[in-house]
Every structure is written in C-alpha cells, then in structure tokens.
C-alpha cells in the first residue's frame, strides 16, 4: 500500500485549481460575476476530484490484489467491477472523523465563505489564496482516503481478516501514529487516519 497514485492526482488537482483561482483574481468584482465565477470554479474542481478519486481507488485496489497474488489482468477486471462511480459517491457521503464533516456540504460551505469574503474585503487576492488553500487541503485528504478504502476493499475480497498499522518510520511521524505503529486490528475495526495527509499504511496479516 502506498500513496503514489494519490500524490499524482493531488499534484494535478492543485495545479489546475491554482490556475482557476488565479483567473478569479483577474475578475471585476461585481456580485453577479463573483457568484457565477466562484460557483463554476468549485463545481469544476469537484467534478475533476471525483474523476481522480475513481482512478486512484482503482489503481490502489489493483495494486493490493496483485500484491496478494492476483494476476494483473484479473485484478484490473475486478477493479472495474468493484470500484465504480457509486463507490466514490458512497465514500464522499460518509462522515469523516478527520475532517469532521461530509464532503459535499463542506464544499458548499467553503464556496459560500469564499463568496462572502470577496464581497466584503478589499484584500481579495489574500482571500482567494486562503480559499484555495482550504479547498486544496480537503481535496487532498479524500485522495488519500481513496487509497485506504480501496486497499481495504481489496483485502476483504481476498479474505484478509486483520491488518497491521505501519508508519513511514521517518522523522515526520507524529506521536499519535507512532503509538499505533505495529498494532494489529480486525479489518472492520481499523482506526481512521489520525490527521490530514496521514501517510501510514495498512499491511495484511495473513
């Protein structure tokens, strides 16, 4: 299990969203322009993110199956059957214990706060930069989540009953994750990531 597919997706989303927000900085800020332009930016960001999450989840699922001995061709076929757009929708509809919110309502709140800030502050570029940072953090978190959930789905399909929590073992490991390192959990009782951009992995215990 690793986050290489999530990292690629996050890098692409960040780049595209940066371009979109930079375009917003060129707008003339009357109310109708602001509402329409910001709604468009957030809607496109979400559509793009959902496509990326689907790709991330499928490749993570495939990689997990291959690591457990499934042939690549069979793994890809299973991924197309199991990791669907509905799978991603269900993931996003779940309450997240790290973010403490549901995906779509929080996107709507971020969008509305961005509009309100732009309509009320003279420091519009700073406001846009802050809104972009908050959006970027949320979208990145769910890319990482797609890795974890799809990997666990692959483990379940292969009959894995327990997993081991493994940290990256470097100087960036936080105290909470360090305390969990090496712990074994039933696959239906795995703790959620402990913070944004958690890079801990879950190894199958055969």
Task: Summarize the structure in words.
With 206 residues, this protein is mainly alpha-helical. The chain folds into two domains: 4-159, no CATH class; 160-206, no CATH class. 66% of the residues lie in helices and 6% in strands. A three-stranded antiparallel beta sheet has the order 2-1-3, with helices on one face. α1 (4-24) packs antiparallel against α2 (31-67) and α2 crosses α4 (85-93). The longest helix is centred in the first third of the chain and has 37 residues, at 31-67. The radius of gyration is 19 Å and the shape is elongated.
Q: What is the CA-CA span between the terminal residues?
A: 15 Å
Q: What is the element string, with H for helices and E for strands?
A: HHHHHHEHEE
Number of domains: 2
**Average residue pLDDT:** 93
Task: Write a compact overview of the structure shown.
This protein has 206 residues and is mainly alpha-helical. The protein has helices at 4-24, 31-67, 72-82, 85-93, 103-120, 124-157, 175-180; strands at residues 162-166, 184-186, 201-205.
List keywords for this structure.
2 domains; 206 residues; 7 helices; 3 strands; 66% helix; mainly alpha; three-stranded antiparallel β-sheet
Set down the secondary structure blueprint:
Layout: H1 4-24, H2 31-67, H3 72-82, H4 85-93, H5 103-120, H6 124-157, E1 162-166, H7 175-180, E2 184-186, E3 201-205
Antiparallel strand pairs: 1-2, 1-3
């Amino acid at each position: 299990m690793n986050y290489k597919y999530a990292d690629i997706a996050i890098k692409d989303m960040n780049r595209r969203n940066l371009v979109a927000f930079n375009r917003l900085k060129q707008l003339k800020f009357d109310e109708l322009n602001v509402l329409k332009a910001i709604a468009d930016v957030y809607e496109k960001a979400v559509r793009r993110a959902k496509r990326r999450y689907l790709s991330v989840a499928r490749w993570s699922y495939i990689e997990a199956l291959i690591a457990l001995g499934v042939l690549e061709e069979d793994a890809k076929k299973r991924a197309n059957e199991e990791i669907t757009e509905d799978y991603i929708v269900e993931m996003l509809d779940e309450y997240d214990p790290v973010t403490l919110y549901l995906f779509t309502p929080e996107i709507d709140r971020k969008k509305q706060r961005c509009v309100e800030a732009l309509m009320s502050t003279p420091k519009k570029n700073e406001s846009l930069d802050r809104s972009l940072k908050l959006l970027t953090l949320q979208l990145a978190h769910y890319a990482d989540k797609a890795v974890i959930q799809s990997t666990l789905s692959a483990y379940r399909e292969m009959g894995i009953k327990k997993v081991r929590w493994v940290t990256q073992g470097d100087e960036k490991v936080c105290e909470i994750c360090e305390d969990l390192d090496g712990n074994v959990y039933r696959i239906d009782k795995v703790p959620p990531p402990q913070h944004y951009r958690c890079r801990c992995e879950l190894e199958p215990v055969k």
